[in-house]
Amino acid sequence: VAAALAGSPAVLAEPAPAEGGPVAQVRRAMTVAHERVGESEAGLVWPGAMVWVDPETVTSLIEAYGVREGTILRPSYGGRPGWPVLVPLDAAATLAHSSADRMPDDLVDDLVAAGIPLEVLPLGDPGTTHSRATASADLPRYDGPPAPAGGPPPEWGAPAGERSDEVALEGPSLAPYAQAQAEAE
Fold first, then answer.
1. Is residue 79 within 8 Å of 127, Cβ to Cβ?
2. How many Cβ atoms sit within 10 Å of the Cβ of residue 15?
3. Is the pTM here over 0.70, yes or no?
4. Phi and psi of 183, rounded to 5°?
5. Which of 73, 84, 17 is nearest to 47 (CA)?
6. Contact at 8 Å (CB) between 26 and 13?
7. What is the spatial distance between Cα 172 and Cα 39, in angstroms, rounded to a whole number?
8. pLDDT, position 66
9. Rg of the Cα trace of the chain?
10. Closest-CA residue to 169 (of 159, 179, 178, 177)
């Protein structure tokens, strides 16, 4: 793994002690993610056997989190929940109460039981539910999501939304194409 990551911006971090179980590994990964990128709000919990996940699925989870902050996001395929699961980094403290023998699916259940909302997104990617035990040629077909994971795009010219940290843009705006063309002539 170290050789594969050499030269990339990815970080190979020391794992948590094995006796801490999967929960310790997940908490360690969340801690390292936050240490490396302090602005991070969430991280992907991604079991190593899930090698067929499409990059579009990862992008869709990240995009969806932008409008669902604080929510655990889990992809599904054919009605089955899959991986990776995008988890708010604040959840790491909640995981401290999970026992070491809890497996990744159990950890998601623990977070939901603690009151962290979960949304399952039907992204149509068979790689989210089929591990490396399934040959690439044997994967079911990619169905694609029924709608954009981040919700429908806003209408052109519609308000950007209610954000307290957003400031109005200043300066000239672009003229409509016909007007700009007429002025150029």
1. no
2. 12
3. yes
4. -70, -30
5. 84
6. no
7. 32
8. 87
9. 21
10. 159
At 58-104, the pLDDT tens digits run: 999 999 998 889 999 999 999 999 999 999 998 888 988 899 999 99
Identity of the amino acid at 124: G
Tokens matching residue 145: 């999501």
Q: What's the distance, CA 145 to chain centroid?
A: 15
Q: Classify the phi-psi angles of 88: left when phi > 0, otherwise alpha if psi is within -120 to 50, otherwise beta.
A: beta
Q: How far apart are CA 19 and CA 27, in angstroms?
A: 13
Which pLDDT value is given to residue 171?
A: 44
Report the pLDDT value the prediction gives residue 155, as an integer from 0 to 100.
60
Q: Which parts of the chain register pLDDT below 50?
A: 162-175
CA–CA–CA angle 153, 156, 160 (5° rounding): 70
Beta bridge partners of 122: 76
Q: How far is Cα 47 from Cα 53, in angstroms, rounded to an integer?
A: 11
The two structure tokens encoding residue 28: 């360690």
Please provide the DSSP assignment of 155-177 as one string. PTT------TT-----SPPPPPH
